[in-house]
Amino acid sequence: MTGTADDDNYANHGEVTAMVDMSQDGNDTFTNSGTVDGEVKMPGKGGNTLTNQDGGLLESLVTVSVNNANGNNSAGNTVTNAGTINTSVYISHNTGGNRNGGSNTQNNTGTITGGTFGSCNYGASSTGGSNHITNSGTMGLSVYISVNQGIGSSGGSNTLDNSGVIENEDKGSLNYGESSSGGSTTIINSGKIY
């Protein structure tokens, strides 16, 4: 399943065995209530919406916004999961320099077995925007709200609101790059974080 440079609105209610590649451009929407065996990849322009409905199954890596070019900004992205994601979720993945990853939202009421990465900033002087992750389901691995590895990268302001189960520790903000910063992080927990 391959997207176009326009604003695509795709839905899967059956089975897709290959990659769902919507990375070309546009502000895209992907809704799944079936099974997707391949990777799901959406455009770096951002403004994308991914919804995995109750009964939906995503088996491979999910990247909601892939930003590789230098100097381009990405709008915010929204991820809603009520089904099962048997892999990690990268809401915003920024490798280009001077990128802005936008503000991203994830609401999980289902199960995510892999890690959740709100904003990953690998490019020099890239910015991840603000990320808000809400969990009332189960998240199997660590939640990385902001990962800043590029020189001078910044993760913005981030919020984790957990009333469910996170089966590994919340990492909040990880800053590896020289002069990188994670911004402010707020964690509200009324559930369980192991």
Summary of the model, kept short:
The chain is an all-beta fold and 194 residues long. Helices cover 0% and strands 43% of the residues.
Layout of secondary structure:
Elements: E1 9-12, E2 15-16, E3 20-21, E4 29-32, E5 35-36, E6 40-41, E7 49-52, E8 57-58, E9 62-63, E10 66-67, E11 78-81, E12 84-85, E13 89-94, E14 104-108, E15 111-112, E16 116-121, E17 131-135, E18 138-139, E19 143-148, E20 158-162, E21 165-166, E22 170-175, E23 185-189, E24 192-193
Largest sheet: 8 strands, parallel
Low-confidence stretches: none
Measured between the Cα atoms of the first and last residue, the distance is 37 Å
Helix content: under 10%
N to C succession of SSEs: EEEEEEEEEEEEEEEEEEEEEEEE
The whole-angstrom Rg is 15 Å
Shape: globular
Question: So how many helices?
Answer: 0
Mean pLDDT: 83
* Strand proportion: 35-45%
Number of strands: 24
Strand order within the widest beta sheet: 1-4-7-11-14-17-20-23
Find the structural class using helix and strand composition. mainly beta
Q: What features would you describe in this structure?
A:
The chain has about 190 residues and is mainly β. It is built from no helices and 24 strands. The protein has strands spanning about 10, 15, 20, 30, 35, 40, 50, 55-60, 60-65, 65, 80, 85, 90-95, 105-110, 110, 115-120, 130-135, 140, 145-150, 160, 165, 170-175, 185-190, 190-194. An eight-stranded parallel beta sheet has the order 1-4-7-11-14-17-20-23, with no helix packed on it. An eight-stranded parallel beta sheet has the order 2-5-8-12-15-18-21-24, with no helix packed on it. Strands 3, 6, 9, 10, 13, 16, 19 and 22 form an eight-stranded parallel beta sheet that branches. It is globular and about 45 Å long. The model has no long low-confidence stretch (mean pLDDT about 85).
